[in-house]
Amino acid sequence: MFRLALALMAGLLWMAPATAQSTFTPRDENPEDFPAGAGRDETFYACTACHGFKLVAQQGMTRAQWDDSINLMIRRHNMPALDDKDRATVLDYLERVYPPRAPAARGGWQNPFAK
Ligand code: HEC
Predict the structure, then answer these.
(1) Among 2, 29, 53, 103, which lies 20 to 30 A Cα-Cα from 44?
(2) Would you write out the chain's pLDDT as a tens digit for each of its 115 residues?
């Protein structure tokens, strides 16, 4: 059912008359471009209402930091608040797929005594 709705929406956008162009911004991203997993599509659509998902995907944060980011989006950028269930779904996905980067990923082995 959800897929059908998406297909219909895609069809409508495709047929949208030229006059609609000033409000319609074409996207060059799809949820499929990002790691699969529970909550991916929900997260993608919640965040791409305003900006590309790449802006999200390039971050690595803890759950608490992601939670803060969402608060920031709501407070500063007028993002519609997510209900508790959606928020948990989005946080589960972000926490699992975009955790803080391990130090090893930044520059190989690091001497733990050299700090
Ligand atoms: C209502 C609009 C809106 C929604 C929805 C939204 N954002 Fe944003 N977000 C913004 C704006 C505006 C900026 C700042 C402008 C920019 O950097 O493009 C931003 C920037 C960001 C940044 C970069 C912050 C930085 O310090 O560089 C992150 C991370 C982010 N958003 C995460 C999210 C996540 C995660 C979601 C979905 C859960 C989301 N946003 C949904 C409006 C929104």
Answers:
(1) 103
(2) 666 566 655 554 555 444 444 444 556 899 999 999 999 999 999 999 999 999 999 999 999 999 999 999 999 999 999 999 999 999 999 999 999 986 655 555 666 676 6
C-alpha 11/C-alpha 9 separation (Å) is 5
The CATH architecture that domain 43-102 belongs to is Orthogonal Bundle (1.10)
Residues near ligand 1 (Cβ within 6 A): 46-47, 49-51, 55-56, 59, 69-70, 73, 77-79, 90
Q: How far is the CA of 61 from the centre of ligand 1 (A)?
A: 14
Q: How many other CB atoms are there within 10 angstroms of residue 66's CB atom?
A: 22
Query: What separation in Å is there between the alpha carbon of 114 and the centre of ligand 1?
Result: 36
57 CB-contact burial (10 Å; exposed 0-12 / middle 13-18 / buried 19+): middle
